[in-house]
From TrEMBL:
This is Ferredoxin family protein. It comes from the Archaea. PANTHER family: 4FE-4S FERREDOXIN-TYPE DOMAIN-CONTAINING PROTEIN (PTHR43687:SF5), ADENYLYLSULFATE REDUCTASE, BETA SUBUNIT (PTHR43687). GO terms for molecular function: 4 iron, 4 sulfur cluster binding; metal ion binding; oxidoreductase activity. InterPro entries: 4Fe4S_Fe-S-bd, 4Fe4S_Fe_S_CS, Fe-S_Ferredoxin. Residues 1-30, 34-64 form the 4Fe-4S ferredoxin-type domain. Keywords: 4Fe-4S, Iron, Iron-sulfur, Metal-binding. Pfam families: Fer4_7. The keyword Metal-binding applies. The keyword Iron applies.
């Protein structure tokens, strides 16, 4: 499993980027500002810290 970001809900807080213990997120610059992207999904350890940290519930863990 790995995180999937719903960009319709994401506000670019980068909380997921900050809390991930295996650093699988990267920060990407967009026209709306910075946002997190799942850069290394294979590194996910399914700890769900990113899911819990997201202030808008924009992240869920999905099957590979």
């Amino acid at each position: 499993m790995h995180p999937k970001i719903d960009y319709n809900k994401c506000v670019g807080s980068l909380e997921c980027y900050d809390v991930c213990p295996v650093e699988l997120f990267d920060a990407e610059e967009t026209e709306e500002g910075k946002r997190a992207v799942v850069a290394r999904p294979e590194d996910c350890i399914e700890c769900e810290q990113c899911v819990d940290a997201c202030p808008t519930d924009a992240i869920e863990l999905v099957e590979d």
